[in-house]
């Protein structure tokens, strides 16, 4: 008995630390006893044309906490949080236990594990989201690093299907913008239904940075979530060379050839008393207008 925890192991049992460090499959006679301390969502995927499922859990004993991926759906109920299990015929890969259809799981007497190990296991299955970065900074991050981004959806492509490892996989491309970047592609693998549409602001967590042929983009991971977010407050400095008043709105012609629509009353209020929008813009070459907006709504115009 050490620190209040019983460290005694049954004959031929292996600790998680020993199992992972061995990097070899464990035979039927060399088992692992551990407590299930965290459980993720069931993942649905297709392999060789067949619909399959996997479950990620965290196992812990007094020595360490380890991620375990279960590929036998019939055994999912035995991997409930709080259960103590004894595993046989498992595979060790990248510090992870792989439980296949030939693996065995037995429910055994409850094992006490330190709270620190339980917290470690929970972080393995439910890691905190990657840091939120502006799009420009996210694209400058090292390849394969994870980032969380927030921006406005400016384009949404249709769901398409590609073949990965001889199996069809669905994906969809979204294009985002923020005040630091005009257009960034985010590829969503196995996209979940969402109400996000062009014009909406979204937060997409845990994207991975990709670089291919000098083009940088983002892709979703198994940890990615996407939620509708509040629109960002943005301020733009515009160089105005022309204006066309159309009732309640005025379309501004900018120096770079693009246009911007603002409320006529708001723009008129920013002018000196007695001025008219079109004439004032013509008489003041390269007029600088500072426009504050939130989403599609213009909040303020200043000259």
UniProtKB/TrEMBL annotation:
Which domain of life does the UniProt lineage start with?
Eukaryota
Name-wise, this protein is Replication protein A OB domain-containing protein
Which species expresses this protein natively? Mya arenaria (Soft-shell clam)
Q: Which CDD domains match?
A: SoSSB_OBF
